[in-house]
Amino acid sequence: MSSRERILGRVRRALADVRPDDTPYEQAVLREYLREHGERSVEETVDLLAENLADYRAIVHRCSAGDLPATIAGMLAARGAKTVLVPPGLETAWLAAADVERVPDRAESSARQLDQLDSVVTACAVAVAETGTIVLDGSPDQGRRRITLVPDHHICVVRVPDQVVSSVPQALELLDPARPLTWISGPSATSDIELDRVEGVHGPRTLEVILVG
């Protein structure tokens, strides 16, 4: 008997005298909470996203779709980045103006190899204005979760207004729970008992978000 079978057997025995729940999942949990707090225009929602991203110490940029390649190139140059990790489905035009070595994501790449790269550029699945949160779902233009957790610098592109919602409930309606979701609210950070903040502990030290209108 494998460990898996042994554990599942214990679960079945523990649940043997538990009556089945006939209440459908949709009715089991009350969902009468507000789906968003207040009414905002599209412009106000995007402004709130930018404000909350900055409050979490993310660096926010705004540009048009035509200016995106130049914007990314300028950000990479300002940081002195020479190598950029690229998800397989990222639009090639986004890095067309950047003078960098494009490193494709490979399954065999180790965490140490990823850590040696200067930056990573990705798209996103959705952005939540009320919480200043970027959500990645592992789509081809975002890549695997680890490529956005190991490199020290992450540039994330958000399409405005298509990918911006007001609240978490609205975001959940657009996301597939079966996908590997990564929720990002600012750069990785923690603090000790004296509240000394340390960034870059379990993710990028620097998060730059481009709102592309």
From TrEMBL:
This is LUD domain-containing protein. Residues 94-212 form the LUD domain. It holds the Pfam family LUD_dom. It comes from the Bacteria.
